[in-house]
Design brief:
Elements lengths: L2 H28 L9 H7 L1 H11 L9 H27 L4 H8 L2 H17 L11 H5 L10
Helix pairs in contact: 2-3, 3-4, 4-5, 4-6
């Protein structure tokens, strides 16, 4: 190979590398923390992995569970969604979200904890086997995440 051939190969490789970097940068730009909309889709816009987990768990929630299995699955899914929202709240804090954005992510916690308590009562009242322990605000406060996991 002569010098001209080597230069041509190097230019082609450089173009390929630049193209790859540009496409990766565009993909990374799509995820833009902090999350501003307090929905699974809003979380997904900023943190794609958390948002996907949220949507998958939310799909398991049955708003009128009729059997012990449905109540248990709904209970676990509600906890998972609540924890994803708390993780998004924590991630937002690491990305300096505005106070109003943070408020949007925490404002529904009390209502969701109440829904879990009511579901727990329904499970106990129906005589469901293996009723899980009541999930409380203390449990929610134990949720943690580090910045590298905010994806």
């Amino acid at each position: 190979m002569n010098i001209r051939s080597n230069v041509l190969v190097i230019r082609i490789v450089l173009l390929a590398v630049v193209s790859l970097i540009a496409s990766l940068a565009a993909t990374a730009a799509l995820a833009a923390p902090p999350a501003t909309v307090a929905t699974c889709d809003g979380i997904k816009d900023a943190y794609p992995i958390l948002g996907t987990q949220c949507a998958n768990q939310y799909a398991k929630i049955n708003h009128a569970p009729a059997t012990a299995a449905e109540r248990r699955e709904t209970y676990a899914a509600r906890i998972a969604v609540l924890e994803v929202f708390r993780k998004a709240l924590l991630c937002n804090g690491m990305y300096n979200a505005s106070k109003s954005a943070q408020q949007r992510f925490s404002s529904g916690e009390a209502g969701h904890l109440q829904a879990l308590a009511l579901l727990n009562v329904a499970m106990t009242g129906a005589g469901d086997p293996n009723v899980p322990a009541l999930y409380t605000a203390a449990d929610l406060n134990d949720v943690s995440i580090n910045k590298q996991q905010c994806k």
